[in-house]
Amino acid sequence: MSSQDQQIMFVFPGQGSQYVGMGSDLIRDFPVAQRLYQQANDILGYDLLKLCLEGPEDDLRLTRHTQPALLVHSLACLEIFRELTDNQVQPVLTAGHSLGEYCALVAAGTLSFETALELVRKRGEFMGTYGAGEMLAFPLHLDNIHPLAEKHYCVISARNLLDQTVVGGLTDDLDRLTTEAHAQFPRKRPTRLKTEGAFHTFHMITAALHFRPVLDAAEMSAPTVRVLSNYTGTYHDPDPAAIKTRLFFQLFHPVHWIDNLEAAFHDGITTIVEFGGGLGTGAAPEDKRPNLESMIKKALRGSDFSAHYHAAINSQTLRETAMALQS
């Protein structure tokens, strides 16, 4: 099946998929990546590339740095992929997890690279300055963890899978929730996420209020392909004013990622390509595994649908995926 016969979805990861050394292979191998990082440095007024390449990790993990770093890395991967495929492999829809939604809007032509970078710079600053709390990913269905979370003043941050629910709250409240959840579900241990606050909860309302005028002033166009909204779980309205309100609400409401995936599956997606970021303990970009792959494949296994998954997160996987989708 040629790329023209496929229904292709481009996806982009969110925070937690950053790592020191991110982008080192891209700038070594592709001039377009060098240009994009230099453009980002000029816009931001600091050396983002040096931070990505050398760290320190604690600085890269700060929300105000993580969000621009991941956006630039993801979009560098996208630009390289377009170059490798002569722009012949086109998506019918795009989606991103949390921060990744801004990359999805760039890929769909709604945001320019410059506007998206300015938006996530301010978004990261406000979330880091005005946010509070932490996040835990529980391998539990929403119906199991939701009542326990509310009992301890915690709330749902994301529905990633039917059996993976992220909860946000203050540290002491999350500790009490963890103790009670362990008593009821002893084999279901949560994973603490590497974030600076309880994103997508009421702890981000002040950040959202500061972010709103920045969103209101941003230049946006109607998307050229459909884009999935984390806030609604379904497709964005093509009206840029409506997209802005959904991005505003996304800051302090749960990410409905499983609903995004199911919407794509129901609409006949046959191929999914993930751009940017990376997970794992290996130091080199080629040692990293994709952030969203596991969730996508688990969601597919629990459904009646099938789709081919491809990573495009470093030089090696970019070349492999470009070749596979052009063959």
TrEMBL record:
Domain Malonyl-CoA:ACP transacylase (MAT): 11-317
Top-rank lineage group of the source organism: Bacteria
Enzyme class: transferase
InterPro entries (UniProt xref): Ac_transferase_dom_sf (IPR001227), Acyl_transferase_dom (IPR014043), Acyl_Trfase/lysoPLipase (IPR016035), Mal-CoA-ACP_Trans/PKS_FabD (IPR050858), Malonyl_CoA-ACP_transAc (IPR024925)
Entry keywords, A to Z: Acyltransferase, Transferase
Catalytic activity reported: holo-[ACP] + malonyl-CoA = malonyl-[ACP] + CoA
Pfam families named among the record's database cross-references: Acyl_transf_1 (PF00698)
SUPFAM superfamilies, per database record: FabD/lysophospholipase-like
Listed EC numbers: 2.3.1.39
Entry annotated with the keyword Disulfide bond: no
Family under the similarity heading: Belongs to the fabD family.
Protein's recorded name: Malonyl CoA-acyl carrier protein transacylase
Species of the source: Candidatus Competibacter phosphatis
Organism taxonomic ancestry: Bacteria, Pseudomonadati, Pseudomonadota, Gammaproteobacteria, Candidatus Competibacteraceae
